[in-house]
Design brief:
258 residues, 30% helix, alpha/beta, Metallo-beta-lactamase, Chain A, seven-stranded mixed sheet, binds zinc ion
């Protein structure tokens, strides 16, 4: 059985899991080692069974568990060339392996492709895991959807996509001006409206399951995010064929079977 699920999602920590026939791939390792091991155990897995860890970028909410977690697993650790230096600083320079742009990794029985994302962290990427009708895309932490992102995600069966904030809630919210500007910039985080537009475009290419991820605690609610995505699918007349859910901030998402 192949499946994908998120283990934590949002600025307090991000981690997700892809289970193939042989591969056990952790995508990002935010939160804490203890938390990730607890989540894995709930899914019947020990950290020592992880085959690979792929990192999207080196912001703390995506790598904070790594230094301790690496002591519990011999999993290979992967990142883009642009993120490699910083990952070595955090995780020691023996474990991280860098892949180059456009390279496809064969991780056990699963092919994994990275694609660049516009975000204020060097070498930031999203991932496609698996192939064809059973592929899942993971795409959070991006300020805007570039043609490269659309190209990479087109045709995936399921996609975890960032729906970070409601633009109006950011504008009227409590954050200082510099932080608002960062969130709203092209290298910050994706708004509900921009996410909904991505959902609409991907649904046209055949994506049938969306996980709305990395929601802001202060500038969004699951209801705001889901409403925007549903409205986009209704415009397309696809609301009955396409599933949308929100990744829990804490706790595992019900596995998406692939
Ligand atoms: Zn993040
Ligand atoms: Zn980030």
């Amino acid at each position: 059985m192949q499946y994908f699920c998120t283990l934590a999602s949002g600025s307090s920590g991000n981690a997700a899991l892809y289970v193939g026939n042989r591969a056990r791939i952790l995508i990002d390792a935010g939160t804490s080692c203890r938390y990730i091991r607890t989540m894995l155990r709930a899914l019947g897995l020990d950290a020592s069974e992880l085959t690979d860890i792929v990192i999207t970028h080196t912001h703390t909410d995506h790598i904070s568990a790594l230094p301790v977690l690496l002591g519990y697993t011999g999993a290979r650790l992967w990142c883009s060339e642009g993120a490699w230096g910083e990952l070595c600083r955090i995780a020691g320079d023996e474990r991280p392996q860098a892949f180059s742009a456009g390279q496809t990794l064969a991780l056990e029985d699963v092919s994994v492709r990275a694609f660049p994302t516009m975000h204020d962290s060097p070498g930031s990427v999203g991932y496609i895991l698996g192939e064809g009708a059973s592929a899942v895309g993971v795409c959070t932490d991006l300020g805007c959807v570039t043609p490269q992102v659309l190209d990479a995600l087109a045709g995936v069966r399921a996609a975890a996509v960032e729906s970070n904030h409601d633009t109006e809630l950011v504008r009227t919210g409590p954050y200082p001006a510099f932080l608002k500007a960062r969130i709203l910039s092209d290298s910050g985080h994706l708004s509900n409206e921009a996410c909904a537009s991505l959902v609409e475009k991907l649904a046209r290419t055949g994506t049938r399951r969306f996980v709305l991820a990395h929601l802001s605690e202060k500038n969004n609610t699951p209801r705001h995010a889901e409403r925007a995505a549903h409205a986009a699918l209704c415009r397309l007349g696809a609301q009955d064929d396409v599933g949308v859910c929100v990744a829990p901030r804490r706790g595992a998402l019900e596995p998406v079977l692939l």
